[in-house]
Design brief:
With about 350 residues, this protein is of the alpha/beta class. It is built from 14 helices and eleven strands. The protein has a four-stranded parallel sheet with strand order 4-3-5-6. A three-stranded mixed sheet has the order 1-2-9, with helices on both faces. α5 links the parallel β5 and β6. The N and C termini lie far apart (about 45 Å). Its cofactor is Co(2+); NAD(+).
């Protein structure tokens, strides 16, 4: 697979990834290397990674507990303290080996420690490969509010090795698939079509589909690195999806949702809004709803859940001047950003989702 050139960094795939990493390390005068992992990637993925890493530099492994609930400033403080105790300096290199929580948090830690040290992402989950590791967004949650604290700062490179996916549970694979579905819906109708009949799906082509998903996200980010315009399209499904994810994260009576599970529901809801605003045909909406519901189990919403989800919408990062702004689809494969939607229409979207 050919290398994808992003804004000031390359994205390497499979057989090219480790050769590029080892050459980069050998040509730079790093003082030492810190590898940030969670407990899952430490067990399942780090041995694979270390077997491909060639360096005489001192390597320190920093592990934290997996899970979105640990993507917070408290975990950052702990790791900043560890870096300090282990004498990390401006010439240290940080390697983030893991899923989206690891790359989000690790990139933020590296971007802020001593005003910034170099870092590289090695995503090990589907979600991290096609979304979290690409685009330069790094950050942490503020309480249950997703990604409220962060920076846009690109890594030196991203290494995508799909053999790590053999260690990923099926529910995590489905979580990552949601972002791939999104890329088709907002940008490439033919790409979306490949997912509409998963029973006939050839998983031998999955690496190519991952590549195309990364390509789509990168093409959008290259046009708008700081999310002032077209990059907002990547938030399709996320305005309501993030609110749902945050609500289920904070509510002890609810089972915490994976990111992709919440975004899948968000895409159905926001497709309904697109239809109701005249941007999407009813048969297109029906196709989207049927496809996503075939892959993901329904999320059960009680009436008492809707109000707190609404309250969380005000914290969405796309909001301007106190108005909730949606990125909606204008037909399959096209997007329309900065869309205002009345609360009554959102309520109807939840009702339709349940039917």
């Amino acid at each position: 697979m050919q290398t994808i050139q992003a804004n000031n960094y390359p994205i390497y795939f499979n057989e090219n990834a480790y050769a590029a990493l080892n050459e980069y390390i050998s040509n730079k005068k790093f003082s030492n290397i810190f590898i940030i992992v969670d407990n899952h990637t430490n067990e399942h993925c780090l041995p694979i990674f270390l077997s491909n890493l060639e360096t005489d530099l001192t390597i320190e492994i920093i592990e934290f507990e997996s899970g979105e609930e640990n993507k917070n400033i408290e975990t950052c403080v702990q790791i900043w303290n560890v870096l300090t105790e282990l004498k990390a300096d401006r010439k240290s290199l940080v390697l983030n080996v893991g899923g989206g929580v690891v790359t989000d948090l690790g990139g933020f830690i590296a971007s802020t420690f001593k005003r910034g040290v170099e870092f590289i992402h090695i995503p090990t989950t589907l979600l991290a490969m096609v979304d979290a590791s690409v685009g330069g967004k790094n950050g942490v949650d503020l309480g249950n509010l997703k990604n409220q604290i962060g920076v846009i700062n690109v890594p030196k490179m991203v290494l995508i090795d799909t053999q790590y996916l053999e260690t990923v549970p099926q529910n995590e694979m489905r979580s990552g698939l949601a972002e791939m579905l999104k890329h088709g819906l907002i940008y490439d109708a033919s790409y979306w079509k490949t997912f509409t009949d998963l029973d006939a799906f050839d998983f031998a082509d999955f690496d190519k589909l991952i590549y195309r998903s990364v390509e789509i996200k990168n093409e959008i980010v290259m046009q708008d690195p700081t999310e002032n315009n077209i990059r907002k399209s990547l938030n399709f499904g996320h305005t309501l999806g993030h609110a749902i994810e945050s609500y289920f994260l904070e509510n002890e009576l609810k089972t915490t949702l994976l990111h992709g599970e919440a975004i899948a529901a968000g895409m159905i809801l926001e497709s309904y809004l697109s239809w109701q605003k005249g941007l999407l045909k009813v048969d297109e909406y029906s196709q989207i709803k049927a496809c996503i519901k075939h892959i993901y189990e329904d999320i059960v919403f009680d009436q008492k859940d809707i109000d707190p989800i609404f309250e969380l919408l005000v914290h969405d990062k796309k909001n301007e001047y106190g108005e909730i702004q949606f990125a909606l689809i204008e037909g399959i494969g096209k997007i329309k950003i900065n869309q205002l939607v009345e609360n009554e229409m959102i309520l109807k979207a939840f009702e339709d989702y349940k039917n």
